[in-house]
Specification:
This protein is an alpha+beta fold. 27% of the residues lie in helices and 23% in strands. The chain has one domain: Cytidine Deaminase, domain 2, CATH 3.40.140. The chain is built from 4 helices and 5 strands. A hairpin with a 5-residue loop joins strand 1 and strand 2. The radius of gyration is 18 Å and the shape is globular.
Length: 156
């Protein structure tokens, strides 16, 4: 079968390059062994002007030893919610070569109770992680005064 593409058409194909750069030595990266460690890392990166204003969703990338590879802001929404694209979460996890991830989002109201939508989204992301062999260790609801851990509450 003869190709119908010419050289000009082939030059319009996007090149995809997978690069992960981390200038921090593994021994110097924060170690997360419990929910409180994750909360402290997330809180340190949260914009204090937004935590009680709009809902945001972030993901923490971890290596096999539980060291933080990075934190990615996945979305920013409004007062009562934000749209989370599962593909964005796992594109970051794959690009960062993460072995596991921890999810977090804030409730501007200060309410730490998970909504039905929070529970369903966590299940959806966990199922996707199983397919990719990237475990979802926890999902935190974060406020400036505390946090709720899905894992500690037996919801993971």
């Amino acid at each position: 079968m003869e190709s119908t593409m010419n050289l000009a058409e082939l030059s319009r194909v996007a090149e995809v390059e997978l690069i992960y750069r981390n200038h921090v030595k593994p021994s110097q990266r924060p170690h997360v062994s419990k929910s409180r460690d994750a909360y402290n890392c997330f809180l340190a990166t949260w914009n204090e002007l937004k935590i009680e204003f709009v809902e945001q969703f972030k993901v923490m990338l971890l290596n096999r030893a539980g060291r933080v590879l990075g934190i990615v802001e996945v979305s920013t929404g409004g007062v009562s919610g934000t749209y989370v694209d599962v593909k964005v979460i796992f594109s970051a996890a794959l690009k960062g070569n993460a072995s596991s991830i921890i999810l977090a989002h804030n409730h501007p109201s200060g309410n730490l109770k998970p909504s039905h939508a929070d529970l369903e989204l966590t299940k959806k992301i966990s199922r996707a992680g199983q397919l990719l062999d990237i475990s979802v260790n926890d999902h935190l609801i974060v406020t400036s005064e505390g946090f709720y851990s899905f894992a500690e509450e037996g919801l993971m």
